[in-house]
Structures are given as C-alpha cells and as structure tokens.
Amino acid sequence: MERIYLSRREGGLGLTKINQAYKEAIVSIGQYLEISEDENIKKVAQYHNEALSQQTSITKQAKNFAGELLEETMGTEQTPAAMIAKKTSYKFSSREEKLRMERWKHHGRAGRFQGELGKGYIDKEESHIWLKNGNLGFDGKKMIVGAQAQGLLTNGFKKMTGISGNDQCGFCYTAVEIVGHVVSACHTLLADGQYTARHNMIYKYTYWKICKECNIEVKDKIWEHEPDPVTSNRCITIFYDKIILTGGDIGGAIKPDNVICNE
Ligand SMILES: [Zn+2]
Known about the structure:
Blueprint: H1 18-35, H2 39-50, H3 58-66, H4 81-105, H5 111-117, H6 124-127, H7 129-133, H8 138-148, H9 155-160, H10 179-184, H11 194-213, E1 230-232, E2 236-240, E3 258-262
Antiparallel strand pairs: 1-2, 2-3
Helix pairs in contact: 1-2, 1-3, 1-4
The chain binds zinc ion.
C-alpha cells in the first residue's frame, strides 16, 4: 500500500494521499501563523494557541504533525513567513515520503522487490522508467506492480491465506503457483520452450554472420550450419552458448549467447 503513494521516480504510483495532503496544508498554515510579523495574523495565532482545542487549533495540530521541523525564527522581508512555511511543508512531506519508503522496504512480501532493486547490478532508475513514462493504462500498471509486490491472487497465495487447499499451478499442474513460477518458470506458459527455440534461432544467425565476417568457413544456409561451442581462427575466438567461468559470483548469467574474443 505504501508504494501507491510514493513518487514515480522512487517506483511508486504517485497518488496523493488525502490524509497527507491535509497534514501538509495544516503544517504550512500553522508555520505561517506562528512566524508571521503581521499584527492581525499574530492575533489569529494567539487565538489558535490559547482558545482552541487540540482538534480544532491549526497551530497545535501543526506541532503535532511536524514537531521539530517547525521553525521558530520570525519571518523577515528577506525571508518572508510564507516562504518559510512552504519550506517547512516541503521538509515535512519529504520526511513522510522517507518513512513510507522504509515501511515498504520492511514489508515482508512487498519489500522483497526493494531488496532486488538494491542489488549492485540493478539500475534502479531504468527499472522505474516505465512508471515515469506512464505509457501503460491503469490495469497494466496494477498487474505489474501486483506481481512485483508478490500480491497477485495465485493459487499459492490462496492456500497460504486459507482461501483454498490447492496451491498447484493452474496451467501446468506440476509446481506451486507463485508469481515467480507464472512469470518465468511455467513450461505451459512458456510454450514448452518454444520461446527459447525462437530465441536460439536468432543468435544462431548472429553467430553465422560473425563467422562470415571473420572469414570462418560456414555452410551457405544458416539452418544447415550447426554452431560449435568454441570456434576460432588465428585472430578471433567465438563462444556459442557456452558457460564462461568467472573469477567471482556475478549473480548468474554465465552462459551468454555469443562471446567474441578478439585477440
Ligand atoms: Zn505452471
């Protein structure tokens, strides 16, 4: 839920929380009343401080919401009270956004996506660009955000919450239906490897083209040429769908499609 009210650059949906908007307005007005040098405004502030209750006094509510963020220095001509009030409201809104972010991070299920985003090899900004661009409709966004937050109503989720006793995938019936399985591991949804076969045909073509460019002998027809895991001539070595041993853990992806070593 916290994510809905975060800004889009932070991966949220950018909705305005009505409760938060109300508090920001109160903080801004309360701050203005407290530091304005105008004699009439001072009287209003005094009335709110002395005659009104906690629930109806703007100044008391502002202290309650923003606390130590409120400035005590009176406004001057150079820094008018209205400007200070705006700044205080902004500080208050930033603090609340940080708190929302923390709550999202520490959420047992939805927070896992934040954990993934924090990994060194993930470009956080690029990961949120689809949200910033806003090309998807509400239903599309809802589906993706739901999947990232592990919040889709899968059979695994239904069993966990006691709605149903069956947690098996409704497409392949061979595994527990969780978001990760549906998105990237279900053989039925992945057309029994047909997508991989199509993908392999494309990089078979790039392999064949590279060989031709480097004067390595290949058959005339791409479909007749079966690539070797390692192909080389005097100056170049081409690895095709081969596991590359790395010095350290690079988080998977050690079997690239084509690798060219140009010596
Ligand atoms: Zn499945």
